[in-house]
């Protein structure tokens, strides 16, 4: 008998620890981006020199061709650790870097974000940061790339803020914090936060966006004064909300996604009216006014939507919140048929059942989507190829696949989006649905 070789294992088992082009960066990347999103905060990276630079293309540029802002990219101080520090430690270099940064760079808050190298060589970064606590507002985000992805880094940043910066405050009635919208990972984060803030202001609620507030340090310090924390994701931001409840007693509410279009936006406001005991007549009057305007304006897109793309079979490939928001809007307001949804942000196992429920229940379409959780670009491609769809709402990684292999239209709505500039664009709120249609319809609207 000759040599018997084992059957070739199935492709998915051959490299179980490897994912092709996952749609996030490392935890350092998430904490770094959260720092940049806090206006007035200065990140100080204690890491290899490439850690910060790789986030330029891997995080902010991937989030709709965004720049990193005044404290990002080559303007970010970094200890640039090399072999010598791996042998002798990097604490002295970090100490000197913090000293020079606090002298030379104008900032309201400094955040030392440590990466893989100091975690592996055992630098006591916390002790070095402590030496500066009396002189400047400073945090240590004790992360490392290998502890998780960018979403984990976002949580670790909030964790550091809660533990090292926040103190109990008097609760201000009708003030809320907005959590769960992760800077850069949610590519419409800036617009989403602003729309939520404006919506809430219209019904008499003061929203602390935290990110992009003009005074970032003050926005962080205000966090414990909120009456309620609103988390716009079934999982992202939930650990921070739990910790704030434990530490300051602030209750929280989880909204599965930033609402897209009139139906979900009105439902969200009605929920808030009950939860915060708002004046119902004011909320209902605002809802009536916004719905009337939005549906009247929808008439302008109705002809092209019905003629060119009626009841489109759609595929959505996106992070949890974006997938839920767009699937619900497409099914409940545009008559789309959600064929498949692939969730790409690797939510924890314990949240997945709830996410599937949000993606399959409460839909008015006859078709309910097949839901997958997948981060590997190649496996996502294989999953999509099993379906016939006309519209693919995904990342720019699916751009050519959609056109060449699925014969479908594609719009980049999720990370990474290297094919469109997103500054203030958003699909949130009453007018967000119209904005989505504007972005889609121009692709098939006319022959020329
Ligand atoms: S995984 Fe580690 S080494 Fe790589 S960029 Fe992130 S912190 Fe740096």
UniProtKB/TrEMBL annotation:
Residues 26-441 form the Nitrogenase/oxidoreductase component domain. This is Nitrogenase. It comes from the Bacteria. Coiled coil: none annotated. GO terms for molecular function: oxidoreductase activity.
